[in-house]
Amino acid sequence: xxxxxxxxxxxxxxxxxxxxxxxxxxxxxxxxxxxxxxxxxxxxxxxxxxxxxxxxxxxxxxxxxxxxxxxxxxxxxxxxxxxxxxxxxxxxxxxxxxxxxxxxxxxxxxxxxxxxxxxxxxxxxxxxxxxxxxxxxxxxxxxxxxxxxxxxxxxxxxxxxxxxxxxxxxxxxxxxxxxxxxxxxxxxxxxxxxxxxxxxxxxxxxxxxxxxxxxxxxxxxxxxxxxxxxxxxxxxxxxxxxxxxxxxxxxxxxxxxxxxxxxxxxxxxxxxxxxxxxxxxxxxxxxxxxxxxxxxxxxxxxxxxxxxxxxxxxxxxxxxxxxxxxxxxxxxxxxxxxxxxxxxxxxxxxxxxxxxxxxxxxxxxxxxxxxxxxxxxxxxxxxxxxxxxxxxxxxxxxxxxxxxxxxxxxxxxxxxxxxxxxxxxxxxxxxxxxxxxxxxxxxxxxxxxxxxxxxxxxxxxxxxxxxxxxxxxxxxx
Amino acid sequence: xxxxxxxxxxxxxxxxxxxxxxxxxxxxxxxxxxxxxxxxxxxxxxxxxxxxxxxxxxxxxxxxxxxxxxxxxxxxxxxxxxxxxxxxxxxxxxxxxxxxxxxxxxxxxxxxxxxxxxxxxxxxxxxxxxxxxxxxxxxxxxxxxxxxxxxxxxxxxxxxxxxxxxxxxxxxxxxxxxxxxxxxxxxxxxxxxxxxxxxxxxxxxxxxxxxxxxxxxxxxxxxxxxxxxxxxxxxxxxxxxxxxxxxxxxxxxxxxxxxxxxxxxxxxxxxxxxxxxxxxxxxxxxxxxxxxxxxxxxxxxxxxxxxxxxxxxxxxxxxxxxxxxxxxxxxxxxxxxxxxxxxxxxxxxxxxxxxxxxxxxxxxxxxxxxxxxxxxxxxxxxxxxxxxxxxxxxxxxxxxxxxxxxxxxxxxxxxxxxxxxxxxxxxxxxxxxxxxxxxxxxxxxxxxxxxxxxxxxxxxxxxxxxxxxxxxxxxxx
Lengths: 477, 477
Description:
- Two copies of one chain form a homodimer.
- By secondary structure, chain A is an alpha+beta fold.
- Chain A has helices spanning 3-11, 27-30, 50-65, 122-131, 148-154, 161-164, 167-170, 199-203, 237-251, 263-272, 298-314, 327-347, 362-376, 405-426, 445-448, 451-464, and strands spanning 16-17, 41-45, 71-75, 93-97, 104-108, 113-117, 134-135, 171-178, 183-186, 211-219, 221-222, 226-234, 255-262, 286-294, 320-323, 350-351, 355-356, 381-387, 392-398.
- In chain A, the strands form four sheets. In chain A, strands 12, 13, 14, 15, 16, 17, 18 and 19 form an eight-stranded antiparallel beta sheet that branches. Chain A has a five-stranded antiparallel beta sheet with strand order 5-6-10-8-9, sandwiched between helices.
- The longest helix of chain A has 22 residues, at 405-426.
- The mean pLDDT of chain A is 96.
- Chains A and B meet through helix 6, strand 9, helix 8, strand 11 and helix 9 of A and helix 6, strand 9, helix 8, strand 11 and helix 9 of B.
């Protein structure tokens, strides 16, 4: 039986799509989210259970052992930003989509845990948690399409990391199909388990290169009694960092969001989406969006917030501020923040970065790097925004106003990346804070990653996936 | 040059101790904390820098490659409870103590991080953080002697895990000497870094079997404005779990401690330390100690606590409660909790467990296992206490009142362990919640750990330490 027939036997004929099938359109799985790469799969396979995933992996492993050049690319919601979840152009890769495995297996209120399959869409997971009276705090732009399996594979960050951590910190246990097609049943709901090496965190963030995550037990939190959002004008990045310190001190764990947005980024939202009514941006180089979640009530949250902002105004680290009066205003403020991504696309192509730097070094990093870029590319415009609470900036470089965007990308992308990443290295930062490595940054690691770390990564890959069956060429070249 | 001379060359003659040295006493490093095992080291080596650690590892690796049967046991404060940090009896192991490497390298207030060497005593780390106006939240009984390196090696838990997580969750970056004697400089202070596999968490909890942790960058938190402690009588374990849910809901992230203590455990404190004045224990099967850290002020914390306790009294999950009036009363309550360990020792030998179970299953686990043990050993007494907020019980089995403790251990330890661990497995728990595996539980893993997980652990050990140089026989047999 050839591989395609074996795959059909494993998951059912209807769940194996190939280019030979009349009328089959595989592009939703072959085209990456940012439309940078269009691959060609040998087949798209849609297993419906963990056992089926294991059968698929065993079938492909056997074909490879028999000399066929085949491999597996696991995929969640296909919203990744680093080309880590689409097949390459060779036509030899089996695209394994987890989308059919989307059940919530169990919810344990007293243990504050929920067990879900990898294909569960993040927004559905949030909703199931909410319906049960709890908060599942992972939240990011793609939440309507991305899956928890993809979030785990990339260790996704998002907007509440300052309080709840990345996806890694929200996960207690995993179920994984190994490169040998075995099933590791590690779906523990335990907060403490010191019986050996931490396999869970090795698979999280491995982008499907060490094993296929099929299910996970995630933490739940009590739903806050109130949530408030404020928007503040700050006179400099130094002041933004100072405000962050004050917010930590005054709100403690109530601080659930701390986003910074540069004036040019906000001007693009104002220009392309004037109906969104961006507040306070005209007279200040930076705005900050803060969120405060309160376990008591709205009145208390508001008093807390006002004390913080008064102190910040006194100290001069805030020049003006508004606090959302109701949920719809709060959503409006977040919507502005989230519209930066679209607004910059409306303005034309830009060179995107997803970097992190120790918070204390961010003001210097931004000042230095802005100046370097301005010297190199006269008229360059910086779309600078991000999760300052986590030291994570989306430090994007937009073409000068009159430039041709396509030509700008072609001529400058490599040079700008080098300049920015060298600065990141100098300030002890990371060239991929929350998006991952994928194919896009894999060739950067030898330059920007500690060589001993890289050597250990290679050893671990060889140990768990000796035949390079799983997502080859991603994370490690 | 023989190995001992090479070690002397690496760290200085004064920092290599052997049994051949006149008057040398190696017992502080050879004898484990619980005095279960007395090993014999080839030498005790005390490096003063990371480079010296690397030289020591390379020297021992070379000797091993040349056919000598030597290996390395890294040690922190030697307070471990599972025989993971002392040499075996062979006289062939180099005991590598990190105690001289005890500097605080840097503190970064805006980034909320502190970088310390592995030999820094936990209490000193807490103090340096406090002096700088921050909280380092790891806290456990041995904090006056244990080191942060040991805490990392065992992924130590302690009393504030319900809010701040285990040592793993408090660590951002590591510096590690590999089994090849290379230095991995992974001392990042970043909250987000997705540039490859999570090496950090692989070394944390590996008990020195994969590499030697020499330094770490740890998270700091704003120091709470107030901290309050309450002591509540609860009528059953079910009610204790219900109280935990209420506490999560009302205090949110303010809940920093939630300890449960059984009546017999408290009776032992009352009996052996009557001056401690244990409250409320006579008329209730369980007491709970709760801690609430507040970012506002004491008045607010007290109001919060009172609301919680009123609600709990209404719902019948608390029958009586006291809130400490001041810091000294609060310390007194914690002292009672921490005195259980000594009180049970005063009473005689017992069989100790450090288990975790999903919180929702703890009432059933305790009822079932208590009954099984009572049937098997008439008159057996249960010293049951622990970190209920984390699902972690120290479920200790004390000899019947008139029994000979030594004989009880001899006759029953193996049988009681099997009975308790089988119950733990049945309830999806862990046989080592916060103490680790060491030598003490290494032979239990094949029975109680998922076989696929164990196979992956062996692969990882072979990948990073192929010659089994580091702490052989611990974690993996």
